[in-house]
């Protein structure tokens, strides 16, 4: 009972907002009489599609990592030192059962939903998907137990991720374009993984719903939705620059090189989507189409970032201009003016950057 309050109660309390959003997405937006069919369609969607299943497994992996990191963080807290005296004396079967109960109580939502998925997959004769889910969840339930046990036995050791991060920092000097990506991986991983999960679903849905033959305009419309999912990450980029790398303006770099750094940073940010798109469309989309996907995506994200050099552009106005640019791009795409969109947004982005970069002053609210 005491351990459940320390780990389970605190975990669900700390992540109540996230669980509310997930619950609303899975149950709140669906009418009661359609709830069962909605979940049956969703489960049959990922048990019958390998790409969709991989995306779901990735989501479960992220959630499992979140559970494990919470336990490790709790064990590392100064006020939790007494847990080493309590859990450290356990041995044998009792020790592993205790760790399993703790981890199961945190990871239980994923296990319950995956159990339903296995049952439906077996009924639909998707044996491969059912076996994959069972083996995957077995690993997700067992591997963290050894991590917890190692932490109890070695309370003063630094985690493998932290050691790898420190070693990487010693070996490599981060270029300017990588600063914000590094920040997202360390302090914005939640929003980053949610964004990538949403964009993966959009790409799968776009390609799956597209009627044959292959239609470039249909794929580009889906790509606009992928880019729209990144707007929050782009908006937060300004705050990161204002608070943590404001000294970058004093670096002896020409303006064009600064622009190239920003462009390359967004290319790397979108690299998972580019790879996924290439895997999904390589049989029907030629190299020129793949290049168009990359150029359009990077151009729009860079243009949205440059809009934020107008300091009075708050979040509401920013999203308003984002939607306007989406609509303009949509009409130009429907008019087959693909490369005009790319050139237009690049010209606008560089013009704003060249005229506003050295004049920009961070809003007082962000500086404070």
TrEMBL record:
Membrane-spanning segments: 12-30, 50-72, 104-122, 128-148, 192-210, 216-235, 259-279, 291-310, 322-341
Keyword Membrane: yes
Keywords, comma-separated and alphabetical: Membrane, Transmembrane, Transmembrane helix
Stated name of the protein: Uncharacterized protein
Natural source organism: Chitinophaga sancti
């Amino acid at each position: 009972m005491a351990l459940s309050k320390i780990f389970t109660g605190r975990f669900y309390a700390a992540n109540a907002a996230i669980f509310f959003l997930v619950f609303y997405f899975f149950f709140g937006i669906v009418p009661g009489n359609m709830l069962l069919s909605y979940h049956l369609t969703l489960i049959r969607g990922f048990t019958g599609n390998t790409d969709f299943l991989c995306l779901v497994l990735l989501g479960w992996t992220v959630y499992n990592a979140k559970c494990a990191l919470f336990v490790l963080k709790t064990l590392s807290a100064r006020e939790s030192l007494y847990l080493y005296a309590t859990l450290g004396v356990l041995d044998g079967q009792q020790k592993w059962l205790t760790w399993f109960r703790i981890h199961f109580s945190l990871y239980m939502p994923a296990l319950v939903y995956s159990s339903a998925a296995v049952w439906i997959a077996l009924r639909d004769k998707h044996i491969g998907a059912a076996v994959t889910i069972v083996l995957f969840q077995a690993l997700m339930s067992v591997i963290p137990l050894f991590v917890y046990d190692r932490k109890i036995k070695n309370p003063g050791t630094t985690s493998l991720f932290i050691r790898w991060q420190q070693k990487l920092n010693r070996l490599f000097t981060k270029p300017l374009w990588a600063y914000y990506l590094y920040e997202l991986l360390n302090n914005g991983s939640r929003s980053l993984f949610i964004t990538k999960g949403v964009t993966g679903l959009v790409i799968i849905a776009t390609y799956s719903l597209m009627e044959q033959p292959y239609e470039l305009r249909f794929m580009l419309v889906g790509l606009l939705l992928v880019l729209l999912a990144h707007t929050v990450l782009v908006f937060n980029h300004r705050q990161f620059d204002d608070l943590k790398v404001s000294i970058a303006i004093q670096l002896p770099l020409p303006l064009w090189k600064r622009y190239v750094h920003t462009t390359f940073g967004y290319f790397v940010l979108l690299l998972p989507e580019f790879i996924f798109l290439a895997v999904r469309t390589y049989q029907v989309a030629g190299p020129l189409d793949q290049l168009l996907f990359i150029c359009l995506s990077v151009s729009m994200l860079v243009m949205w970032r440059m809009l934020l050099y107008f300091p009075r552009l708050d979040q509401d106005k920013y999203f308003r201009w984002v939607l306007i640019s989406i609509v303009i791009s949509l009409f130009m795409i429907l008019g087959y003016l693909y490369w005009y969109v790319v050139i237009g947004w690049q010209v606008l982005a560089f013009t704003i950057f060249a005229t506003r970069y050295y004049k920009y002053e961070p809003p007082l609210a962000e500086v404070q």
